[in-house]
Structure prediction request, 356 residues.
Amino acid sequence: MTEKLPVPVVWSEECLLHDPGGEVWLGVRDAGTEVPERALVLRDALAAAGAPEVAAVAYGDEILRMVHDPELIDHLAGVWAEWERAGFPAEWGRDRVVPYVFPTPAMLGDLPGRMPPAVHGRAGRFCYDTMTLVGPGSWTAIRGAADAALTAAGLVSAGERLAYALCRPPGHHVTRAAYGGSCYLNNAAIAAQALVAAGAERVAVLDIDAHHGNGTQSIFYTRGDVWYGSVHVDPGAGWFPHYVGYADERGAGPGEGANQNRPLPPGTADEGWLAAVRDLCAAAAARGADAVVVSLGVDAAESDPESPLRITEAGYREAGRLTAALAPTVLIQEGGYDLPTLGPLVLAALAGAAEA
Prediction:
C-alpha cells in the first residue's frame, strides 16, 4: 500500500470562481495561463496522494489590513460591481476590469495625486500592469485564497509541523497598496503576518517561485521580524518583475540585512538552483527563524512556459526538504502553469517537506 502524503491541504472551493478571462500582454489580449484548472489539477493530485483536506475557515480582515492598505482591499472588493454599474461590460464590451492609465512618478512629478471618481481611471491607481484582470467572481476567489493562507498559518501556529494552502489566485507580486503579476492579495505575506500575530518572533519567507516576489519583498523590506529570501530568474535578463529582484537589495532601516535575493541566469538547472536555495536556508537558519512560509511556485520547472529555468521533480523535492527543515512551515501555492506536470511537481515539493 502506498504511504499517504501526511501534509494537510487547505482548500477553498471559492478559489475556482476567479476567471480572469485572459491577460493583456504587450497590448494584446491572450488566453493567459492562470486558469481555474490549475487548482483542480492540484486538488486531484493531492487527493490521489492521500493528503488530508482541510476546509478553509472564513476569517475577518484584521490580518489583511495589517499587510495591505485598506484602500486596496476595498477597491478589490468593490471594483467589479462598480465597473458593471458604469456600463463597461454591457455597453462597451469590456468584460473585465483592465487599467489603462497609471499615476506613476513620471506622470505626476511633484504634483498632488488625486483619487479619480471614474472607475476606469481609478483602476490604474491600484493595479500596476495590464495582465491582472478582474471579473465577476474574482473577489470571492481572492478572499478564499487569503482564507486558505490564514487557515494554514493557524494550523501551524496550533502545533502542526506542516500545512499547505492551495491558494488561487497566487499572491507574491502584490505590494502593500497595488496588485499585479496575476496576483491580487499577498497570501504568503498574510500567512507570515498571521504567524507573527500568533506569537512567532522571527518568520522566514522563502520564495522559490520562478519570478521574484516583489510584493512580499516590499511589504517586509523595512521590518526586522520577517526575513525574506528569493531564488528566481534574473530580472536583468528581461524577466518579470523587471525593476526589482537584484542581489544588492538587502532591506532598509530595521529590515537592513533581512532581505536576500539570488537571481539566476536563464537555463539554470537543479545544481545551481539548489545551491541558491541552500544559501537562503543557511541565511534563514542564522537568523533563528521559528516559523517558515514557503512561496511554492513550481514555474521554474523545465516544462513550464512561464520561465527559462530547468528545475526537475527531484529539485523540488530537495527544496521542500531544505526549507521545511528550518522550522514549522506553511507552504503557499504561487505559480506553476504546465497542467500535465503541475501535480507531480507540487507533490514532489510536499513529499520533500514531509521528509524533513
Summary: Strands lie at 9-11, 23-25, 28-30, 53-55, 162-165, 203-207, 226-233, 259-264, 291-296, 329-333. The longest strand covers residues 226-233.
